[in-house]
Amino acid sequence: MVGRLVLVLGDQLSEGLSALRAADPDRDTVVMAEVLEETHYVPHHPKKIALVLSAMRHFAAELRAAGWDVAYTRLDDPDSTRSIVGELMRRGQARGTSVVIATRPGEWRLVEALENAPLTVRLHPDDRFLCDLDTFESWAAGRKELRMEYFYREMRRNTGLLMEGDGPAGGKWNYDHDNREPPPRGADHSAPMHFTPDAVTEEVLELVDARFGENFGRLRPFRFAVTRAQALRALDHFARHLLPNFGTYQDAMLSDDRFLYHSLLSPYLNLGLLGPMEICTRVEAEWRAGNAPLNAAEGYIRQIIGWREFMRGIYFREGPEYTARNALGHARDLPWLYWGGQTAMNCLSHAVAQTGEEAYAHHIQRLMVTGNFALLAGVDPHQVHEWYLSVYADAYEWVEAPNVIGMSQFADGGIVATKPYVSSGNYIAKMSDYCAGCAYSVKQKTGAGACPFNLLYWDFMHRHRARFARNPRMAQMYATWDRMTPERRAAVLEGAAAFLARLDAGEPV
Length: 509
Ligand code: FAD
Ligand code: DLZ
Ligand code: SF4
Prior knowledge:
Helices cover 49% and strands 5% of the residues. The chain is mostly helical.
């Protein structure tokens, strides 16, 4: 009998993948392909490309060792057609089949490419997630507003995580209130686990260096895990050493401590090297053993079974046009400083430099520094989306787009967030040590030297008054603005206009 093709994409590196489960190792061929179409749809950070390609090569070797026939295309293969569908057709022609078993890709672009391909593609659900898309739809259908908190409670009940009988462990669903401590001074703790590249990774690094050396971001040192065994060690390290303080300092930012107590597990989880449930059961076990407080375990589990699953549900529910949304009509080009251009704003300078070096920034850096600035400055959300999709090692559209278009830029008009995540410099001053080393003064509200976040915050509020003044969660801020003297308001708006003019002119800000 003629065998079929089994597609395994670069972020589907899971032994239990639905496509692999539906296939027969004795007659079917796994197709894996490093292709320009995937490495070029945005200018990915070199570390991200190296991570995906090295993890793909290691996974292909594991599949072969388990008895699979794997047709693997390397990026520099002269016979390559350079696209996923092209490679499926080429491999199919060579094997006399047009039947493809695949797991639903995490991006509309590829879902549509497979659906429109001149092949018989059998798409299986991606059941590496804890909430399937039909269940999400049933939960969402008919609700006036989709709130993550209610979805999360359903997920706690469905998974049984951190439950005591029918209720939440400790009596509360959410311990976020305990998770907003400012940065710990002089904290002495372990960093996330780092791995030394093996020969397979070294070969990939050379390839990426030669082909993508011009992309934004530093390739070396490369320290990511590239196999499931390594990712499991990273999980163990996090659970033992970092989880206990994860909750308390989750929102803190420190110039000389890029990772604080964050897990750095998202790249592995999103590639498929780790599964969400195994991470959460480990975290719960640490709490039950008395090794981590409840606010840490609950805070962490909420990110995975709450936010992560919620974001995926929104992405696929909203459809392929989601990334084109621009509810606030923002049109400014993404400033050059996002690609490493100089800036005197210390918070942005740090967040972008760290992103360039690590292909990583934690949630609050993404939301309240780079995201906050882009939103306040009125940057075109599609350009913001493409930047985030490019620069982070964990960025795939199903998770990146709802975080950027929805949560960070409010470009979906309030599907993900009830109000825009905007703040003046005060928030950054409270949660970080960035302001102490800044050329601007966070205490200064107007005039030369005033923190640009202070100016742009009120400019944003003023610009979008018609939309937000009736939002009960923003009324107090409008009352504060209205209490300022007309002279002060004029000085703020003039300062903001002057700043934005300098930004548009490409002058250093
Ligand atoms: P930790 O702080 O240790 O958090 C634990 C885990 O929770 C993460 O590994 C991640 O899997 C999950 N998680 C936490 N917050 C979210 C969230 N909002 N959405 C989905 N999962 C979450 N996350 C991505 O995985 N890919 C992205 O492309 C991405 N883009 C983002 C863009 C913006 C503007 C913002 C505000 C957030 C984005 N996030 C994204 C969410 C979050 O910032 C990252 O998941 C987190 O920083 C990853 O680092 P970590 O593993 O150390 O996370
Ligand atoms: C991100 C990425 C990159 C850089 N390269 C490849 C590749 O060469 N081959 C591949 O199969 N997948 C790659 N990926 C991951 C895909 O882009 C990802 O599967 C889709 O974006 C869907 O999430
Ligand atoms: Fe950022 Fe303003 Fe603080 Fe400077 S003063 S680091 S621009 S928040």
